[in-house]
Design brief:
The chain is built from 23 helices and four strands. The chain is mainly alpha-helical. Helix 6 packs across helix 10 and helix 20 runs antiparallel to helix 21. It is globular.
Length: 534
């Protein structure tokens, strides 16, 4: 069997394994939601007060930009588990015994990731057809104008996303939660590179097409030129945003992209970059060699004496033994369990495994919140202080599934509400330990409105992490959502999305206090349901 046929069967098998999971249905559901958001005008493309007539060319361009901007972000977190899944299921050890090369393996995983993301693009393209048929502005369907932006711009950009997901999984420092956060800033940099032409206000040139990762500059540049011909007073501003815009009062007939050699060559360049990234991942891929796995190289020195609880149960994972031994208050036979001891145990588990540099950073942010001016601390320092512990919060609600300790922990009486509240309290203490300087500063300044906003944020963030951890049993969804929300809301002081209350105008503490209660209740309800049907 030749290599191309082997590659085909590997990609096909991996793709079929993914589409049989419930997570793939959620993936398709997200694509459908994006299409609905365009239909309901929750995602809006405008050029000042202009929008295009809802014909095939306009809707195809909008859907294409939605695919390249939103799917390149969310898609990374959806497909960044291919190598991890082979490692956990021990399939990787079987593949390591074959003569398959490392580059062949990383290329197959990249193509498998690309196939999953291409399915999301296909759903969006079909959504564009449904949207046009639902509107009466122009019922005539032109399939090339409708589908070409999503297929050409979307697929080329997502190929890079698929390759980056594999590369991040092979890099030891980026395969876990740190990589999930780092990618958000990589995506932001690539997006900024695409829109740089529009921000600078210069017409797009042939060379700028090659720096346009998402295709935003290519599409909006031509749209802006067409609107400028209609209205010489047009300032050149254009935006693709999630709500928040004044409704467009004028329309223009967008006739579609004028495809040229620079656009096609630039898309080819990004496909080549995706291939290079896939082969670069092979350089760092350890071929599932246990000698390179740090968790298996480091062995704990065992003290003679009575074996730990995990060893008595026949479990040999040091992380699991620590989890069980630190949660022994749940196993006591006393009728009343000391809640404080349980909180301390959860806090120790949360803070475990971080070097001195992490604690120095947390202490520095605490002092910076206290020493800076109140305005600077509230609008700037706290934003950094509450991004610092995101990897600690993302553990909340997931450890029981990760270390398979659920039957042991929840066999105790009233374990579910006590353990959940202890976990949430430990998360709140982490928020206080990193951003408590601002809370103390606000209290000393008698700024009770700001203190209410700070308190709401300190309670809401752990509740959000707990709800996501319990419902998904994975750290990745919270890390992805929180980082994006942090960037859109608190960092830009957007009212309604600013859960930290960085400015008086963007602060809505009552809403987030209510949301906090609902999230904790949702986590409790979901865990009760899972235990009942386990």
């Amino acid at each position: 069997m030749n290599r191309s046929r082997v590659l085909y069967h590997m990609v096909r098998a991996d793709f079929l394994e993914r589409v049989r999971r419930y997570s793939f249905l959620l993936t398709l559901g997200f694509s459908v939601y994006l299409g609905y958001a365009v239909y309901a005008r929750q995602i809006v493309l405008q050029l000042d007060s202009y929008r295009g007539v809802n014909n095939s060319a306009w809707l195809g361009s909008v859907i294409g930009l939605v695919a390249t901007t939103f799917l390149t972000l969310i898609g990374f977190y959806i497909v960044k588990n291919a190598i991890h899944r082979d490692r956990e299921t021990r399939v990787g050890q079987i593949l390591a015994t074959t003569p398959m090369s490392k580059s062949f393996y990383t290329l197959s995983k990249t193509l498998s990731n690309f196939a999953v993301l291409a399915g999301m693009v296909l759903i969006l393209a079909l959504a564009a057809l449904v949207i046009q048929l639902s509107h009466t502005e122009d019922p005539h369907v032109h399939f090339i104008a409708l589908f070409s932006p999503a297929l050409i711009f979307g697929l080329c950009a997502l190929a890079v996303t698929a390759a980056l997901a594999v590369l991040f999984e092979t890099l030891p420092g980026l395969r876990a939660g740190v990589g999930n956060i780092v990618y958000f800033f990589v995506w932001t940099a690539l997006l900024s590179l695409s829109v740089a032409t529009m921000v600078e206000g210069r017409p797009i040139t042939a060379t700028r097409y090659f720096a346009d990762y998402t295709g935003i500059a290519s599409v909006l540049g031509q749209m802006a030129a067409q609107v400028h011909q209609i209205d010489p007073q047009y300032t050149g501003r254009a935006s693709l945003s999630v709500g928040g815009l004044n409704p467009a009062t004028k329309t223009f007939l967008w006739t579609g992209l004028k495809w040229n050699s620079a656009i096609f060559l630039s898309r080819g360049m990004w496909l080549v970059i995706a291939a290079v990234l896939a082969f670069l991942a092979a350089v760092f891929f350890n071929r599932f060699d246990p000698a390179h796995e740090r968790s298996q190289v480091k062995e704990r020195k065992k003290k003679p004496g009575k074996p730990e609880v995990g060893e008595q149960l026949g479990v040999h994972s040091p992380d699991l033994r620590l989890s069980v031994s630190h949660l022994t208050p749940l196993l006591r036979t006393r009728p009343r369990i000391r809640f404080f001891s349980l909180v301390v145990a959860e806090l120790r588990l949360t803070l475990r495994g971080h070097g001195w540099w992490w604690y120095m950073g947390a202490a520095g942010l605490f002092v910076a919140c206290l020493a800076s001016s109140l305005t600077a601390a509230r609008s700037g320092v706290i934003v950094a202080a509450w991004l610092w512990p995101v990897l600690l919060w993302s553990q909340m609600g997931t450890r029981e599934a990760q270390f398979s300790t659920r039957p042991l922990i929840f066999s105790a009486q009233h374990a579910v509400p006590r353990q959940l509240m202890a976990t949430w309290t430990a998360g709140v203490l982490v928020a206080v330990l990193t951003g408590g300087g601002l809370g103390l500063h606000l209290l000393l300044a008698r700024d009770f409105e700001g203190l209410a906003a700070w308190t709401a944020g300190a309670l809401f963030i752990p509740a959000l992490a707990l709800a996501f951890g319990v419902c998904t049993e994975s750290q990745k969804p919270f890390e992805a959502l929180y980082t994006g929300w942090w960037y859109i809301g608190p960092l830009h002081h957007i009212r309604g999305l600013d859960f930290m209350g960085t400015t008086p105008g963007s602060s809505t503490p009552a809403a987030y206090l209510a949301a906090c209660a609902l999230l904790v209740l949702a986590a409790y309800s979901w865990r009760r349901v899972r235990l009942c049907y386990a």
